[in-house]
From TrEMBL:
This is tRNA-dihydrouridine(20/20a) synthase. It comes from Salinimonas marina. Its cofactor is FMN. Belongs to the Dus family. DusA subfamily. Its EC number is 1.3.1.91. FMN binds at P14, M15, L16, Q66, K135, H167, N207, G208, G209, G229, R230.
Length: 338
């Protein structure tokens, strides 16, 4: 199969319970070039589950499947499934610190078993043509020296992986919750920079604590790519600047109003029996972040998007409220000038 090349300079992190297909479709309206990732999907869910965990919209490209697992044969089988469905990449989760992940022998605990990760990489690459990449931490528990980190990279890279996305924090698998593991262990960007200097032939992206495009550009002087997660989710319109600022593509930027109209049409096209407008709207709560009417937008979506009888014109009605607030604010400013 032919592989369409894509640029890894900027990506949105896989986030469990958040970066579902509705979220990814929404984010794609804001950036044409950003690499998007699915939520982590386990091999067990893909092989034995009854749901369609691989569904996505063709508009989402480039899009990568993040896969959780440790059995090489199962990982290869799921990579084939991903390629057949049209995914652009399969990413192995070696960074999630939750107990559920740890008990399943995948996620961050696999940093202590690089040979197991290497076996999965090798088996997957034998069966698919799309890239197989790894997302990891800089260390876990007491295995947090640079030598431990570089040993993991050595072994996995030797198996054929040439792309690593590194969350620049270690993970404490004993004593910290997943939320605490995103915040408590200190960020160590120099360690990721050191890795890139030591392995110039590898493609290294950095993740963790990066909140602005200025910080992104600074990091791109040291590494190949930046992955941003929760900041994009909280303030998604930031993504509209990425194509010009990072990829050098200064196409017309859609307004927030444009995005609302597109997503309202998207909602109207959904025909699943259990679909509700809130499944889309919940990802859009931050669209008017730091704008007049932003609080009104969030409140309207939350109050009218849930419950037994959600508003079918949810987004348009919320937008009308925002535009009224913005008009009143503009009229007030004009009266003060006069």
């Amino acid at each position: 199969m032919s592989i369409t090349p894509f640029n890894r300079q900027f990506s949105v992190a896989p986030m469990l319970d958040w970066t579902d297909r509705h979220c990814r479709y929404f984010l794609r309206q804001l950036s044409q070039h950003t690499l998007l990732y699915t939520e982590m999907v386990t091999t067990g869910a893909l092989i034995f589950g009854k749901g369609d965990y691989l569904a996505f919209n063709e508009a989402e490209h480039p899009v990568a499947l993040q896969l959780g697992g440790s059995d090489a044969a199962d990982m290869a089988r799921c990579a084939v499934m991903a390629q057949e469905r049209g995914y652009d990449e399969v990413n192995i989760n070696v960074g999630c610190p939750s107990d559920r992940v740890k008990n399943g022998s995948f996620g961050a605990c696999l940093m202590a078993q690089p040979e197991m990760v290497a076996a999965s990489v090798k088996a997957m690459q034998q069966d698919v043509d799309i890239p197989v990449t790894v997302k990891c931490r800089i260390g876990i528990d007491d295995m947090d020296e640079y030598e431990d980190f570089s040993r993991f990279i050595d072994i996995v890279a030797e198996a054929g992986c040439d792309t690593f996305i590194v969350h620049a924090r270690k993970a404490w698998l004993k004593g910290l919750s997943p939320k605490e593991n995103r915040e408590v262990p200190p960020l160590n960007y120099p360690r990721v920079h050191q890795l890139k200097q030591a392995y110039p032939g590898l493609n290294i992206s950095i993740n963790g604590g990066i909140k602005t495009l200025e910080q992104t550009r600074e990091q791109l002087q040291q590494v190949d790519g930046v992955m941003m997660g929760r900041e994009i989710y909280a303030n998604p319109y930031l993504l509209s600047q990425v194509d010009a600022a990072i990829f050098g593509d200064a196409h017309k930027i859609p307004s927030r109003s444009d995005i609302v109209h597109i997503m309202q049409r998207y909602i109207e096209q959904q025909d699943e029996p259990y679909f509700k407008p809130w499944h889309v709207a919940r990802h859009m709560l931050g669209l008017f972040q730091n704008q007049v009417g932003g609080r009104i937008w969030r409140r309207y979506l939350s109050q009218h998007g849930t419950g037994k009888n959600p508003d079918p014109n949810l987004l348009m009605n919320a937008l009308a409220q925002v535009e009224q607030a913005q008009q009143e604010a503009a009229e007030y400013r004009a009266s003060q000038v006069g």
